[in-house]
Automatic annotation (TrEMBL):
<protein>
    <submittedName>
        <fullName>DUF2683 family protein</fullName>
    </submittedName>
</protein>
<dbReference type="Pfam" id="PF10884">
    <property type="entry name" value="DUF2683"/>
</dbReference>
<dbReference type="InterPro" id="IPR020271">
    <property type="entry name" value="Uncharacterised_MJ1172"/>
</dbReference>
Length: 65
């Protein structure tokens, strides 16, 4: 058979998918996110700021002088 990987966007979707799979006796495994949600939010916010032109460009050639 095949393996499906799903990416629910919120807890409500996750709960619904689990209930559906249990009702149809489909076996599944759960994996928790490896990263702290606060850290993920910080990184995503930083990426948005860079896209908005709020980032600072650093010339790495001048870091050790």
């Amino acid at each position: 058979m095949e393996t499906l990987i799903v990416h629910p966007e919120n807890q409500e979707q996750s709960d619904a998918l689990k209930a559906f799979m249990k009702a149809f006796k489909i076996s599944f495994e759960e994996e928790k996110d490896e990263y702290d949600p606060a850290f993920v939010d910080m990184v995503l916010k930083g990426e948005e700021e860079i896209k908005a032109g709020k980032g600072i460009k650093v010339d790495t050639g001048n870091l050790w002088k």
